[in-house]
Design brief:
The structure is a homodimer. Chain A has about 400 residues and is α/β, with parallel strands linked by helices. Chain A has helices at about 15-30, 45-55, 65-85, 120-125, 150-165, 195-205, 215-220, 245-250, 275-285, 315-325, 355-365, 390-400; strands at about 5-10, 35-40, 90-95, 100-105, 115, 130-135, 135-140, 145, 170-175, 195, 225-230, 240, 255-270, 295, 300-310, 330-345, 370-375, 380-385. In chain A, helix 1 (about 15-30) crosses helix 3 (about 65-85), helix 5 packs parallel to helix 7 and helix 6 packs antiparallel against helix 7 (about 215-220). The longest helix of chain A is centred in the N-terminal third of the chain and has 25 residues, at about 65-85.
Chain lengths: ~400, ~400
């Protein structure tokens, strides 16, 4: 008997029939003799509809109120799932994030989990219940309801798994696992049977949307194996864990891409200490996340500073940066909103030369211009025109082709 | 400066525009210098839709889960109302029933309020906030979410008013107050400017749906004046309080009616001690509420026992009663599902003869047959055929006509 945490996404519980289907899957796990804790997202497009309602009321809905509003979506699906299990004769109980002890800071709309006080969850497990927890939400010390922002329910699931010492955290979604590239772009893309935390973190951070990087990080920190699989099929999925075999690690494991990239270049910046802080501290204070930063070599004490943000943040970022650019004596600010990113990821790159050259060569062969390059020890990312992302992903998959271990099923 | 509790019903907050309208009304009360606590129902038909969803999942949805599910309806409307006030520049905060300290017993779907721990509400009032509380819900000692059943949000409002020592509890709804009879049946019916708790309790218990008897009882117990008025007009409404003038009390104040009456007669019951308990204890245990009970004078040790239930409970009540009737040697059980009730209510009846005679006379003139009669000190109720309810209400209003004090506006 093991303790297993499962998470089901919004498309998996989009209507009554799908909720019953998920209940049957949970019941099967229970029949295998396991204790089961389930984290559930809001049904289908519930969250979007609630946001729409909020914007009918106010152009700038209050963050605290918006969090309470959105939290109801996951509460609804958790109760329905518990009802479905009880109707099948399985003991089950739903818990809100607050009841499940998901304690967060008070950063409404993007709260971080501080700790999980899982007393109630443990009590219900001991009573023999399948415990259904409303994902994406928590509660502050002041008993205010918060939501966790993007990747929230995945994060709830891994945090609960860590806190309860679960054997595995199973993330069930509408895709069959982690692929060597997005199968919608690359029909030859293959599902990975397993992948290491670090590689998954790079893939997730640079565009693979199957699992949020926050959840991957948390899994790595607490050594929780995470299975990503489909709730609609019986395919085995992808296991993310720390013990991936040496051989398997020594490859480019996946190609990630992201079409949501905008670039700002501050042209003609005097190259003196404090300039970077003068620009990036105000951006951080405005809540704008900066991804890639590149500073050219300075010529005669003048340099260009380029960074990327998501497209949705571009207008606000320009509002913040333009007056600063003027005040520090830069020549101008220019922006480009039509960019994308392609990345190759694999621990095999570490200490192995030649990957960058092969990547640039593959892109050049297709006449794809590289605007910016950033790397980590196990990742190389090129910023390119958005229109060329699809071709780039295909070219890179071809170039590094089936280094991925083939997945059965 | 006074502390005022306001409650807005589901039709008053049915969509974004109506929520904004309610926000403007609240803001006006605030502008008059008052502290305001608002209790809100779920938007329009939200509760019905959630119930429908639950029944798509299960034929008998679990009560605990159903309560958590339904509680989200009021949470949604409370957050939207707080957003609307903030968008207008008024400081406001929403609180769930749990956050507002509405502590209940664990009788899911029909929980009773045990106490109100209003610390958080008081703290938010002291901060200058308008406090919006999700009605109809509370939380048990075990931190399980409950709903209060019928009249729940009205009860939340009066309980909060009592706990906070509010000057008045204003119930805003889609009717303009309490009338001498249902104005849809009796166009001449008049709005009462004021009415005493006891009279209102009888009217509410015997069919006037404007306010739930639970809320009236609570108001009487804690001496909270309750104003019932429309959220759509500026009409003054009806004030329910304890200090109604002697003169005004000495009349038939209102005619109540109820079309939802079914009757069961256990025929040929041996008249011996313990028979009533044998029948009514199991009914109570099955959660079936029995209204009127009439036992005929016994002839040769044999009697008939008749009682009424709501139509929805009739089938279950027969299931409970038939085997008991058999076991105690009764001849048979017969039921009639097509009944209604008309009542006249007024403290004037107390110690004043002639009201019953006038009532029976008025009904007899219209050839309306009276099946059962029950009375309290300030009420006389006749059970009649459902099809004759409307005519009976008109006849009674005519007979006792404008004894009601005329209302201005």
């Amino acid at each position: 008997m093991a303790l297993i945490v499962q998470k089901y996404g919004g498309t998996s519980v989009a209507d009554a029939e799908r909720i019953k289907n998920v209940a049957r899957r949970i019941a099967r796990t229970r029949d295998e003799g396991h204790q089961v804790v389930v984290v559930v997202s809001a049904m289908g497009d519930t969250t979007d509809k609630l946001i729409e309602l909020a914007y009918q009321i106010s152009e700038r809905p209050d963050n605290r109120e918006l969090d309470v509003l959105l939290s109801t979506g996951e509460v609804v699906s958790s109760t329905l799932l518990a009802m479905a299990l009880k109707a099948m004769g399985y003991p089950a109980i739903s818990l809100t994030g607050a009841q499940a002890g998901i304690r967060t800071d008070a950063a409404f709309s993007r709260a971080r989990i501080l700790k999980v006080e899982a007393k109630r969850v443990i009590k219900e497990l001991e009573k023999g219940n399948i415990v259904i927890v409303a994902g994406f939400q928590g509660i502050t010390e002041e008993m205010d309801i918060t939501t966790l922002g993007r990747g929230g329910s995945d994060t709830t699931a891994v945090a609960l798994a860590a806190s309860l010492g679960a054997e595995v955290c199973q993330i069930y979604t509408d895709v069959e696992g982690v692929y060597s590239a997005d199968p919608r772009l690359v029909p030859q893309a293959q599902r990975l049977a397993e992948i290491g935390y670090e590689e998954m973190l790079e893939l997730a951070s640079y565009g693979a949307q199957v699992l949020h990087p926050r959840a991957v990080e948390l899994g790595e920190l607490f050594h929780i194996p995470i299975l990503v699989a489909s709730s609609f099929t019986e395919k085995p999925g992808t296991l993310i864990h720390g013990g991936v075999a040496m051989e398997v690690r020594n490859k480019v494991r996946g190609i990630a891409h992201n079409r949501n990239v905008a670039k700002i270049t501050v042209v003609g910046v005097p190259d003196r200490p404090g300039i970077a802080a003068a620009i990036f501290v105000p951006l951080a204070e405005a809540g704008i996340s900066v991804d890639t930063i590149v500073q050219n070599a300075s010529i005669q004490g003048i340099t260009d500073l380029t960074f990327t943000v998501s497209k949705g943040d571009l207008a606000r970022a320009m509002e913040v940066v333009e007056p600063i650019a003027k005040s520090i004596g830069a020549r101008e600010c220019v922006s480009d909103a039509k960019l994308g990113a392609v990345s190759i990821v694999g621990t095999g790159m570490q200490n192995t030369p030649g990957y960058a050259a092969r990547m640039f060569g593959a892109l050049s062969e297709k006449n794809i211009n590289i605007q910016l390059i950033t790397t980590s020890e196990i990742r190389i990312t090129c910023i390119i025109n958005e229109a060329e992302v699809e071709e780039a992903v295909r070219a890179l998959h071809q170039a590094f082709q089936t280094e991925a271990d083939t997945a059965s099923g």
